[in-house]
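Supplementary Methods, section 5.1.

A reviewer requested that the exact input to the structure prediction be made available. We therefore reproduce it here, unchanged from the version used in the analyses.
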Amino acid sequence: MTDEEVVAAFHKLYYKRSGETWDGTYWLGSKILKCPLDTWMYQEIVHELRPDVIVECGTRHGGSALFLACLLDLLGRGRVITIDIEPICEPAHRRIEFMTANSASPDTFARVQGRVRPDERVMVILDSDHHKDHVLREMVGFSPLVSVGQYMIVEDGNINGNPVYPDFGPGPAEAIQEFLKSNDHFKIDKYRERLMLTMNPNGYLKKISS
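The structure derived from this sequence is encoded token-by-token as follows.
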């Protein structure tokens, strides 16, 4: 087997046992639906780029918002604006602001923009509804908010057969392809996939120009 085949086979096994792996992973007691190798990469990005604001679409259990807030605590700066269509207000942390809204709505883009100062460095993470149309609307709406040098991270491009959930239909991977056809302000940063197993293939998008 090639290296790529080995990684794909392990990726499928990782999902086959999701109850023990990504669906059974916690940060300080709060469920965090992420691969630990991706959260490690988030730690590297946050440490290197020092974002003032991290916008997270898709709060779910709140574990990833708490994880990001803890990283910012270690740096002594920054805040998280986390958005979900369902009202969520935990886990509580002084650096987390919860927003109940549709993350693909123009009203939401405007609300978030209104809570960010022009001088603040902004990073965006998209992890809500994974259907292509929704993700693409999020990408188009939030991309202007991302600061040059920061990332817009599109999660779960591994679905729709990349290599898991082959019957899902067009999702994040297809949204990324469509977005990049008409937007040259971002580039895929494959360096952030160097730990081999990632749930976000081609999803680490670095903003290179405004």
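The chain has a mean pLDDT of 96. These observations are discussed further in the main text.
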